[in-house]
Every structure is written in C-alpha cells, then in structure tokens.
Amino acid sequence: MLKESRVVHMNASQQSCYENVLIPKWHDVWTRIQIRVNSSKLVRVTQVENEEKLKELEQFSIWNFFSSFLKEKLNDTYVNVGLYSRKTCLKVEILEEDTKYSVVVTRRFDPKLFLIFLLGFTLFFCGDLLSRSQIFYYSTGMSVGIVASLLIIIFIVSKFMPKKSPIYIILVGGWSFSLYLIQLVFKNLQEIWRCYWQYLLSYVLAVGFMSFAVCYKYGPLENERSINLLTWTLQLLGLCFMYSGIQIPHVALAVIVTALCSKNLEYPIHWLYITYRKMCKATEKTVPPRLLTEEEYRLQGEVETRKALEQLREYCNSPDCSAWKTVSRIQSPKRFADFVEGSFHLTPNEVSVHEQEYGLGSIIAQDELSEETSSEGEDSDPRYPGQQNNSLTRVD
C-alpha cells in the first residue's frame, strides 16, 4: 500500500495500490493526485482500478498479450488519480536486470489545471473579440500549421484521391499515426529540443512562414455568419477547458452555469423588466393625460418659435452655413439678410393675414412690429420734420 509523500524504493516487478481516504473540498479544485514511477532504466507501468484487476493481469489472455506491446516503456511515468477515486492500483514491470525504481504519491496544487481553466475563461468571455482579431487569426493559423502539419498534408492528399479507392484505408491509418506522432513529440519535447534544436527551430520557422502565407492569402473572416460560428466554437471550447481545468465536477458545473448566466445576463434581465412593466400596466388604472389650455398652447408655441429662430440665426452666422448657396435658393435675399441681422421674420401683412384666418394674436409679433415701427420713426428722413412729429404724436 502506497501513502502520500512516502517514497518506496524497489528493484523488482511489483504491484502496488493507493487508497484515497480524504474527501475533496472546495479548495481542491486545482489539486491533482499523481503516482510517480522514476526508474534508472525503462519500465512498463499498468494502471488498474483495484486488486481484482491486478489478478486478471496475471492471467494469460490475447488482449493482455497485445496490450503489453502497445504500452509505452518509460523511465519516468506519472499516473493521475482522480480525487473521487477510492483506490488505484498499478503494476510495474522491469525489462532489464539491475533496474532500480522509486514510487511516490503526491497531492499538490497543479498550475497546469489553473492555466487550462484560465484559458477556457478567456476563450469564453473574449470569444467574440478574438474571432474578429487579426492577430488571433494569424497566430492560430500558424500554430495549427506547426502542430498539425502532418494532418494537413494528409488532408490535402485526400482531396486528390478518387472517392472509391483503397488508398483511404491508408489515409485513415495516416491520421491515426499522425496523432500518435504529435502526442509522442509533446511528451519528449524537452529532450528533442535539447538534442535537435537546430532541426526543430528550422521546422518551426519554415512551417510557420508557410502557414502565415496561406492565412495571408485567404485573409481574416469577413462574413458575419462565419464570425458567429467561430465565436460559438471558441466559447464552446472555452467551456470544455473550464470543465477539464476543475477537478471537482459539481464545482465545474456551477462555474459553467454562472459563466453562461453572466455572459447572457442582459437577456433575462431585459425579459424580466418587460414582464414587470406589463404587469404594472395591467394592474394600475389608466390616467388620461392632461391637455394644455389654449393660453398654455399659445405661450408654448411662441417660446419654441423664438428658440428655433435663434438657433436658425446662429446657424446662418456660423461657418458651417454656405451663404452664397443659401442666397441663390431664396426669393428675397434682402429679407433673409435682415432676418439674420435680427429683424422680425414676418411682415405686417403676413401677421394680419394670420390673425384674420386663425383669430389668434401673437404677443411676439405685436412686440416685434411695434419695435420696428418705432425704429422706423426714429430713422425717418429729416427733410420731413412735420411728418415725423405727426407720426410720433399718433404713436403717443
């Protein structure tokens, strides 16, 4: 039986089991339990669920015989144990004599889980921005080209093959072999970089440049539906990363539900607000709106008219107004110029016609007309002083 943080040294094939007695808490969301087997030479490690499965491994069967050849032989192996797994057993087989190895169980915070969760969180909440970003488009295209170049080559070759051809069996095997090679490279990436860094760097630069050229040729997505599909794909991928980055399933589900609600919170809130408004309108008594009196209607019209005329004068005096174009389109340029300088916008004849048709006097019109009459009396010709005195006498 293995225990946490206790190193067991062995030099022969051995079967071991680890029993998890701790109940996971909420703070164990990014905690990982691992069994590490570190040996001086290559060993084969087989993980099973309990002791009964270990006994089955000792019995001869065709499946066990072929699976023993498929299992990898490593000198440093990590076996992941679920937080809710009660018991995990493993069998270590040495392949050469004088092989020494150690087995240890560790429970620790795994930064990889946190980074996976953070990546999913970013993809979910920033998917709509990333789908429209050119930097994300080119970087993702180059990364896919570098990582899955063999898969892309097989996909291109399959386009030129006839539909009914036995070569498809080879292509399917090529896909599987490519995936196996990608997994193998990632497992031994550090060793490959240490020994063959020149070839690895040349491969990354060459394939990265070709991937960039292909992405540049087709350009970023412009169709709105294609952008929406990419956004939804990134958000779905982000939810998967968030779920896989948390070790406690019910906590992961709660986080996903919270993320979905917060992302689309405006829709249920808007729906609840509309429903509340409709219920309030159905229950409350309809109050008829207060109508304006005739005096209020007249005063409001005069105030708004004065305000609109002032705004029109300001616009005509501003640089935005083309004076020559405006003058060429109106019938009385002099009257327009007088209005811009501050004169009243109506003539006495127009005011009298309006009063005869509608019977409504205008305080503004009367005031403006009286001011203009007095100013005309003051500015009259001095050659007719008698006429000026008579006009002043009539005004008095």
UniProtKB/TrEMBL annotation:
Main location class: nucleus
Pfam families: NEMP
GO cellular component: nuclear inner membrane
Residue ranges of the TM segments: 113-130, 136-156, 168-186, 198-216, 236-260
Comp. bias intervals (Polar residues): 386-396
Biased composition (Acidic residues): 368-379
Cellular localization per UniProt: Nucleus inner membrane
Lipid bilayer topology: Multi-pass membrane protein
UniProt keyword annotations, A-Z: Membrane, Nucleus, Signal, Transmembrane, Transmembrane helix
InterPro entries reported for this sequence: NEMP_fam (IPR019358)
Region of interest (Disordered), ranges: 363-396
Secretion signal, residue range per the UniProt entry: none
Family label: Belongs to the NEMP family.
Name by which UniProt lists this protein: Nuclear envelope integral membrane protein 1 isoform X3
